Amino acid sequence: MKFSLTSLILAISVTISVAQNPTPKKKLTASRTTISPKIDGNLDDAVWANAAIASDFIELRPVPGRLEPKDGRTEIKMLYDDYAIYISARMYDNPDSVVHELVSRDEIGNADFVGVVFDTFLDGVNGYGFFVTAAGVQFDAKYSLIGDEDANWNAVWESSVKLDDKGWTAEMKIPYSALRFSSKDIQNWGMNVTRKRTGKNRQTFWNNIDPKVDGFVNQSGILEGLKNIKAPLRLSFSPYVSTLISNYPYHTPGVKNTQASINGGMDVKYGINQSFTLDMTLIPDFGQVQSDYRVLNLTPFEVKFNENRQFFTEGTELFNKGDLFYSKRIGSIPSYFDYSGVKSTDKIIKNPQEGKILNATKVSGRTAKGLGVGLFNAVTNTMFTEVEDPSGNRRNVESQPLTNYNIFVLDQSLKNNSSISVINTNVLRQGKAYDANVSAALFNISNKSNKYFISGAGKMSYVTDNPVKENRSGYSYEFGIGKKSGSFTFNYEQEFSDSHFDPSDMGFYTNNNFFDQSVNFAYNQYKPGKWYNQIQAWTEIEYSRRYRPGDYQSLGFFPGLYIQYKNFWSTELNANVLPESNDFYESRNGQVYKAPASYRVGIYLNGNRAKPYNYGGNIVIQRLDLMNGVSYNYYFYQNLRVNDKLAFGLDLNYQPSYNFVNWVAKNGTQAVFSRYDRNTVENTMDAKYSFSNKMGFQLGVRHYWSDRRNKDFYLLNSAGRLDPYVGAALQNVDRNYNVFNIDLMYRWQFSPGSELSITYKNAAETNENFYTKRYGRNIDYVLSEPQNNSLSIKVLYYIDYLNLIKR
């Protein structure tokens, strides 16, 4: 093994040292103007007449390298002045072929679009993208090596489109306040322009994007000759006022069923200099955020939810370095609760699980030499649990202290899409609660041709003043090496953690004490054949041991195949094969469980999403080599676009499982397992109606039902096997869990950056230890239970300081 790994490293190192000549980049000379064009979609302004044209776009999908046809060509012009970059775009097409579905901002829907991406520091890593659809809907995003496309990033800019007998046109005005760039007198920026003809599933780029080459921003062309442009004072305020009315039938004396509140706060953006920006939210209101998709969790690990709060999703690529930041720890899902003040005889009246965020601040940016700096701070207020003693007296018990969350990041971009980084996170809690600190150093180095890479990370966690965990340090590292460009790619990865490494106070982490290795091979056929557009095949092998005492944990094989056909349907086949493994977590007491060998096979079918009615789904079968365990997963989705304004979607997911075996309860220090059957049914319906590209309704309705019906019980013996349970009959260990949610939102962007939103939410949840048969009875049951209804109205107004001064 040592010889093979060393040989591999030497071979790649030799290859890295051999530079290859890159494909010449296209160039466009920027033209300065003294008269700014009117942004109305009409391209007849005189200022456009002599501007240079970027044309001869090259296809990426479905046929990489194919030239754009003359009757469907794209022509781009660019101008600039002291305030903004201006873009003129002419998209030739058959007018009947241009699709233009109306959707909310930052969505594409079923619509043609054109977009420009600027790499303002010409580092080949970081970019700003501005897109507009043929329906006039804006979409913007940031690009980086971490997270690739950050669609949650928003800027304030102008655009307008027109449809005519030649196809359609677009004009954009990108103010310098929406960009970060250096203060050089003469600048060259990386730049690429893309066009998507959604009806034909065809996407082209001005500068060729080779799918065999890793990376997107690094394959941009060059915008030359930007002279004497200066970053303006970037200062904006977004004050908001909101009201929230909620009703839940507590039916408890002294507790109101209906509560109302009026809130106010502000978001602030300030450009510290041409490179760095301060983002601050004061007393934020996240009442309009989509509900979490809660599930019945029978595993020993926490469920990770998606983050939907915009402040914690926008512009956070630097803070996601090293995978140490799980933003829902802040307010939404704190890692620490203290119920030591609650006595066994107390009755809990109210027990909040989310902390109130008092403020949150981000400072981030990148210098002209490629040094990215990120600072993050957030403070959540003290949380109290209201309890009642046997005498009827009520009191508040502090369940979470005032907490301060911090992140500091330095990320230096290097040549050839490479970087080195350091990051530190720390959580400081008031009072007796413990504090936590995690530090990491990371590197990602690619060769000049961007084909081969070597990467790694070293991490250390430190928990202090913790009466439960005690003061302790933990360590972890990651290492990877491989080939990332070309039709054939491969990588080898290694990950290690000792038994004390714990970044979960601010990050998401399930377990430690492991030494994992994996190898992955993939082959991609990008050139279309007679019956397919693209074929991808891969296989991965994963092997895991515990660090101490070094015993075997698991081995897995994961092959897969993906095919996109000429009609733009696609099929994916994947499988996994897992021999018997040693599971040290399922028992919940550290005892090993000999998890049975299993295999899983799935087939996935996806339709052409450009069609007004499209559908797809999958069938997955899993079998366990223990008690004839078997599970099926049947998933079906369908989408219907009635017209450009109205659309519906429906997702149906049914997963029956029979004779599965897992932990169910504890009997003293012993772990009790059960053989059980389980049904999981999840139905999700969504709908949207758009009045215009700035106003519309969105509706989401979800019902989730899952159960557990125990059949037989077993005790886990010292060998990790199961013996029949002969103790007293276990009670209340079946499960029947239902969740029902409605999220209805009206949103109106009444001016750039300003918005009125009205949100109605309905939520009901039942979690019982008895089984309720039949799906219909379960949905009736959850709908008849107490439900939380809330109505939130929020008005946010964007104020640009420069415009305010002009007025």
Written account of the structure:
The protein is mostly beta strands and 807 residues long. Helices cover 4% and strands 53% of the residues. It is built from three helices and 46 strands. It has a 24-stranded antiparallel beta barrel. Strands 1, 4, 7, 8, 9, 10, 13, 14 and 15 form a nine-stranded mixed beta sheet that branches. Strands 2, 3, 5, 6, 11 and 12 form a six-stranded mixed beta sheet that branches. Strand 32 (552-565) and strand 33 (570-578) form a beta hairpin. It is globular and about 90 Å long. Mean pLDDT is 90; it is low at 1-21.
Topology diagram in text:
Elements: H1 2-16, E1 27-29, E2 31-32, E3 53-54, E4 58-61, E5 74-80, E6 84-92, E7 113-119, E8 127-133, E9 138-143, E10 149-150, E11 158-164, E12 167-175, E13 186-197, E14 202-205, E15 221-227, E16 235-247, E17 258-271, E18 276-282, E19 347-350, E20 357-366, E21 371-380, E22 383-388, E23 394-400, E24 403-414, E25 418-429, E26 435-446, E27 452-464, E28 472-483, E29 488-497, E30 514-525, E31 532-545, E32 552-565, E33 570-578, E34 581-583, E35 593-595, E36 598-606, E37 613-624, E38 630-641, E39 646-667, E40 670-692, E41 695-716, E42 722-724, E43 735-751, E44 754-768, H2 775-784, E45 788-796, E46 799-800, H3 801-806
Parallel strand pairs: 1-15, 2-5
Antiparallel strand pairs: 3-5, 4-14, 5-6, 6-12, 7-8, 7-13, 8-9, 9-10, 11-12, 13-14, 13-15, 16-17, 16-45, 16-46, 17-18, 18-20, 19-22, 20-21, 21-24, 22-23, 24-25, 25-26, 26-27, 27-28, 28-29, 29-30, 30-31, 31-32, 32-33, 33-36, 34-35, 36-37, 37-38, 38-39, 39-40, 40-41, 41-42, 41-43, 43-44, 44-45
